[in-house]
């Protein structure tokens, strides 16, 4: 069976999605930089600032891929667990960054995390939640392994806030990205799926609502690159909190 025959689709079969990431692991970071026109570095920097890990904290970086963001988190002195359900990504990350202090790699499924309740001070996931077959279950699992008062930061593709810019972004995704992916990637079919998954994904208010439904509180988001990407942040409530969640009209959102 060829990679095209076994291409991941919006059904998000875990074996197919994992296999797809296994195949693209060696060139994944370079391809992302090319296809994002270099914006991936800015998005990672914004995520690190939003997460703001400090020494003594334990942080789960889920869907960590080759660990590019995990390394930046570990440089703050926090203990970082880089988890991904792709063995190929874990192997590539371990090969590149296995000697980085405070950083370890673990194979893990976002819907059944192999960690104890309330194990982490914070959890983050970048460009991975939309690839989880049951993203809502994944959000609940991330809540489970986070300590009360702990934080979540989600960096994910979203919906541009300007109709004009959204139109230009659509032209790029539909007409420029596919041939560019064929030139830059080792598996162009994988990027066909990834492009489809971006179009199918929740917009900013919808993801915020899903986070609140999973049990997160103080949900807010900040747009990056005019909404092409959004950083969603939230907190796990303490047991003695009322559990009241802010509605969409009161959830803090910044257009920056």
TrEMBL record:
- Methyltransferase listed as a keyword: yes
GO annotation terms (biological process): methylation
| Domain of life of the native organism | Bacteria
What pathway is this protein a component of? Quinol/quinone metabolism; menaquinone biosynthesis; menaquinol from 1,4-dihydroxy-2-naphthoate: step 2/2
Which reaction is this enzyme known to catalyze? Answer: a 2-demethylmenaquinol + S-adenosyl-L-methionine = a menaquinol + S-adenosyl-L-homocysteine + H(+)
Indicate the family of this protein.
Answer: Belongs to the class I-like SAM-binding methyltransferase superfamily. MenG/UbiE family.
Q: Keywords, A to Z?
A: Menaquinone biosynthesis, Methyltransferase, S-adenosyl-L-methionine, Transferase
**Family matches, as Gene3D superfamilies:** Vaccinia Virus protein VP39 (3.40.50.150)
Gene encoding this chain?
A: menG
- Specify which residues bind S-adenosyl-L-methionine according to the UniProt entry for this protein: 66, 84, 109-110, 126
Q: Which PANTHER family match?
A: 2-METHOXY-6-POLYPRENYL-1,4-BENZOQUINOL METHYLASE, MITOCHONDRIAL (PTHR43591:SF24), METHYLTRANSFERASE (PTHR43591)
The job of this chain, per UniProt, is described as: Methyltransferase required for the conversion of demethylmenaquinol (DMKH2) to menaquinol (MKH2).
Any GO molecular function? methyltransferase activity
What protein does this entry describe? Demethylmenaquinone methyltransferase
- The UniProt record lists the EC number as 2.1.1.163
